[in-house]
Known about the structure:
The protein contains three helices and two strands. By secondary structure, the chain is mostly helical. The radius of gyration is 52 Å and the shape is rod-shaped.
Amino acid sequence: MWRDDEYDGEPYVVIERRSASASSFFWGLALGAGVALLLAPRSGQETRHEIRRRARRVKRAASETAGEITESVRDSYDHARRSVEDRIDAARSAIEMKKQQATEAIRAGREAAQQAREELERRIAETKAAYQAGADVARSARPVGARDGGDMPDDDGDATG
Length: 161
């Protein structure tokens, strides 16, 4: 389609594109056949017979086309349904895998925490035992007078008081 509008000083063409549908084709086919039959040099009875015959053909063709379209839609639907089901199954598998990974990570964390607790308790027990042993040694190393609050000898051995 030509337009008189100008773009940057140059004329331009706008092309519109439309796709014809099957129904438009069949309507055109039926109209053309009807006009051809009406303009044909036959008697009324022959023309009516021919119209009925062609109408049955058109009906059969329309029925076949409808069947093909139905089958095509059914196939498309089945394909889309399978695709969605596959994606749902993949998502379920991914969720299950992540769930197992999370469960395993939690279990490993609990084991590590338990081991750390046991190690800490062991070290605390060792430290208490070492402290108690050191305290026992310190108590046993004190002079007898120091235990009952008496005088303690100086470095030179004299008692101070």
